[in-house]
Amino acid sequence: MGSLRVVVADDSVLLREGLVRVLGEAGVDVVAAFGDGDELIASLPELQPDLAVLDVRMPPTFRDEGVRAAIRARELQPELGILLLSQYVEVAYASELLASGSGGIGYLLKDRVASLAALQDAVQRIAGGGTVLDPEVVTQLLGRRHDPLESLTPREREVISLMTEGRTNAAIAATLFIGTGAVEKNISSIFQKLGLEDSGSDHRRVLAVLAWLQR
Any idea what the Cα angle at residue 105 is, between residues 3 and 37, rounded to 5°? Predict the structure, then answer.
């Protein structure tokens, strides 16, 4: 493939310049480097890069500016590849980035990029629409993943299954040969296990049904 156009954002001058050099040696064309995400975002219309490489933590709060900039960049340029680099595994941020797009995304730990060949492979795979995650990121993502639907009792599963058919509480009670009070108790337990708080509307019922259908 041809030389990729890459933009870089990292608040550390030494790390930023080192990354520019390493990426250049990996065979990509670094068209610009910035000290924060806002500057990178502002450059997109003019530079039209293929890939953006960002540190996770940047000014002003040094929390999630890189992730916010990455998500905003994908909104402005949907085909843009995103590679987040971090010193640590930020599980919440990795999950948020992965949820924001269908591909062309990477999350690597700075200290674990072992070679130019590995970096070049990751950059090209991301630019081609693939997903590249450090194994430690994957381990922690899977380790923290919990499906609340697994905690539903057999009766609660019957109830929520009938809810997906649009049945009222009375209709569910008639189908299962139980009282409406028992149905209401099961539905309340389902909402609690799914972490759905009472908003005074049918919103929780819709969300519960969607969660069941998407399992």
Answer: 85
